[in-house]
Structure formats: C-alpha cells, structure tokens
Amino acid sequence: xxxxxEVRGLKAYYGPVQALxxxxxxxxxxxxxxxxxxxxxGKTTTLRALCGMVRAxxxxxxxxxxVIGRSTEDxxxxxxxxxxxxRGTFGRFTVEExxxxxxxxxxxxxxxxxxxxxxxxTFPILKARRMQQAGALSGGEQQMxxxxxxxxxxxxxxxxxxxxxxxxxxxxRELFDIFAAVNRDQGVSMxxxxxxxxxxxxxxxxxxxxxxxxxxxxxxxxxxRQDEGVRKAYLGY
Length: 237
Ligand code: ATP
Prior knowledge:
10 helices; binds adenosine-5'-triphosphate; alpha/beta
C-alpha cells in the first residue's frame, strides 16, 4: 500500500487535559478510511490535531512531509481540507462567495472557474442557490456547500467530521454517493468520522476504532464490520 498520511504517537491536549494518548494509523493514498468510536472517544480531536487546531505532538507525515507543528493554513496549503462538525460555512456570505473562499490558497484563476462549474454540476442545488446567503440554506444544502467548498481547495485529503449529522436519510445517501464518486473520479483520499458506523463502513475501505484517545482496532472495513463487539456496540445487531 502507498501511504498518504502516516501518524505515529499522536497526542493532543486541551490545556492540561490529554485527549489523545499516542495514536498510530496510516491512510492509504486514494483510499477512504473510517474512524469510529463512541461519544468523547477523540475522533473530532484527531481531525483537529491533524489540522493544527489543537496542541499536538507526535510524528505525522503527509506524502513524506511533516504536518504537526504547522499552522492550520499551512496544512491547508499542503492539500488537507477539513469539513468540521456542524458544517462551518460562512453564513453571511453567498454560496458563490463560500466556494471562492474555499479556493483562497490557489492562484490558478481559470482552473478555479472551471472547478466552480464542476461543483455546480455535482451539486445542482448549489447552482440554484448561488446568490443566496449560506445561512439561509437548509441543513443538507449547507453540508453540500461545506463539502463543495472543501473540494475547491483541490485537496489530496479530505477530513470529514460527522457529515451525516442531522440530515434526512435521502440527503445522506446522496452525499455519501458523492463522496464515493469524488474519491473514485478525482482520487481524493478521505478520513471520515461518523456516528453512523454502518454508513461509514459501507463507504470506507479501511477502518480504525478509537476508545478514550487510543486506537483499539484496525483493519479492512469489511472485516471490522464482522467483529462481534463492533456489531453489538456500533451496528446494533
Ligand atoms: P463526539 O462523537 O461526541 O463528537 P469525539 O470522539 O469526536 O466525540 P472529541 O470531541 O474528540 O470526541 O473529544 C475527546 C475528549 O476531549 C473528550 O473527553 C472531550 O470532553 C474532550 N474535549 C473535546 N473538546 C474539548 C475542549 N474544547 N476543551 C476541553 N476538552 C475537550
């Protein structure tokens, strides 16, 4: 396997409180990896630590380049796009302005215009709403916008934090189909955090299980969903 992201001994802290206790995991180049775990296990903190948003130590490399210790903006420039929990769109800006902001670190203006049209083709609802303020969109539309904005970075790696949260099942299906298509057609690697383990294991090729700040299980998603403990705790059967 070609590794895109290698994480060794990742620890993270909120003030004096240690939230991650030395995580080791690897993301396959071009793959989708699910990070599963109960509330408070440290999933969101893992994504934040990779983006330089919490104090973290450990050795993390993206395509061989060190990540930990860099600013969030630098990590973004390295090609890591974070779609945070609760979406994180700019409510006062229009849909179109949000997409432009997603490409802020890029200078290839013609390609940015092409990508914008590609986003509107992928998410037709955003085209219909292009001049509307993001804050006025429905929850599903805002999640689509957050994902489209992240894709405007032309990322190598997308970090998706609970993308299904609060959305109707049909919208979730549509969104996850788009993740699969973006991964397949554009080769964007993804690390996805999900409470809905069933969905995440369907989408992902690999999975990790995190408990109180430590990885306790790792493997192919198909094998992890066969595990009896995982089935009882996360899949409900
Ligand atoms: P959830 O699914 O509920 O979002 P999670 O697995 O994403 O959970 P984290 O949000 O990463 O969990 O939290 C990991 C630990 O860090 C928890 O014990 C949590 O209370 C703590 N924590 C998270 N954010 C902060 C913060 N801003 N300040 C202090 N402690 C925090």
